[in-house]
Amino acid sequence: MQALVYDGTGAILSDRPDPRPGRGEALLAVRMAGVCRTDLEILDGYMNFRGVMGHEFVATALTGPADWRGRRVTAEINCPCRLCRLCRMGLGGHCPTRTVLGIAGRDGVFAERVAVPVANLHAVPDSVSDDQAVFIEPLAAAVQIFRQVALTGRDNVVLLGDGRLAQLVARVLKVKLGRALMVGRHAERLAVAARVGVQTVLATDFAPTAQADVVIDATGTPEGFELAMQAVRPRGTIVLKSTFAGGKALNLAPLVINEVTVVGSRCGPFDEAIALLASGQIEVASLITARFPLVRAMEALLAAKNRENLKVVIEMG
User: Fold this and answer.
1) pLDDT for 255-291, tens place per residue?
2) Cβ 143 vs Cβ 172: under 8 Å
3) Of 4, 176, 182, 295, which sits most exposed with the smallest number of CB within 10 A?
4) Strand partners, 217
5) Cα–Cα distances in Å, from 316 out to 3, 27, 130?
6) pTM for the whole thing?
């Protein structure tokens, strides 16, 4: 099969043997995969990953239990041991020996086929198209904020960032709170959010006043966290959705002085994300701005770096 592989120096399209599913795993034929910021960070050394890239996808099950074969599916990306203390606590996403599709210790989905644990599979309803289904994983990450922070319509919530994940977070905020304020650096991306009723403001026009009850940082940059500290009120909450390679020295004293709660937020509930898409409450397909076949996957990565593109997808054909 063909696959896009990161070898430590760059991404290359190569021929590889088909995956051989282990015990409790299914072989999937990938239909479509999405390129996200984490994939681009891997190219800069994030998680020191080596192997087939990619983790956002929709596929058809080729093997596995009979009730799964032939169905359109997606899969949760964390593959835990299911035996350790954290797994028994229901925190498999934090299992110390877990592998993660296309991110840590396990080949991902920028390939014609992939093997994943059957326990990770989620069926994609007929009412959800492939264009929608490729957003299930990042949409679940956006929903996760509401699993971690008790937000209400009375809260003053500020969302920092206007990229791929921020667009989904804004849509979830709009559905659950009735409103959302997005602060971004790109007028064209802010316009995309404005079309679905999100209030937007350019970062150059945003004056942080330490009044926000909750600030969500989805900028993907260390500077976003600095701005979040300026925008949040004393005893407010900062939710961090950004992952990036490298780091930056930060003055964390304001967190202590103002008794600010910082919440790291990562993966989320696939079932709720699928339900939001199936019900039509959240529209995502229009966020796709570029499509590439697998044979042009390296071009897809370059396109994803272009700020004119929001979501780039790779179609397996």
Assistant:
1) 999 999 999 999 999 999 999 999 999 999 999 999 9
2) yes
3) 295
4) 160, 240
5) 10, 15, 12
6) 0.96
Query: Could you read off the pLDDT of 4-16 as tens digits, one per residue?
Result: 999 999 999 999 9
Same domain, 128 and 149: no
Tell me how far apart the alpha carbons of residues 134 and 300 are, in angstroms, rounded to a whole number. Answer: 15
- Token code pair at residue 46: 């994030």
Percent of the chain with pLDDT over 90: 94
Residue 270 inside a domain? The answer is no
| Whether residue 199 is found in the same domain as residue 301 | no
Phi and psi, residue 105, nearest 5°: 70, 5
Number of domains composing the chain: 2
Positive or negative CA dihedral for 113, 115, 118, 119? Answer: negative
d(CA 149, CA 154): 14
Which amino acid, one-letter code, is at 147? Answer: R
Residues 6 and 53: beta-carbon distance below 8 Å = yes
Do 63 and 159 fall within a single domain? no
Give yes or no: residues 106 and 174 share one domain. no
Q: Identify the domain containing residue 159 by its residue range.
A: 139-264
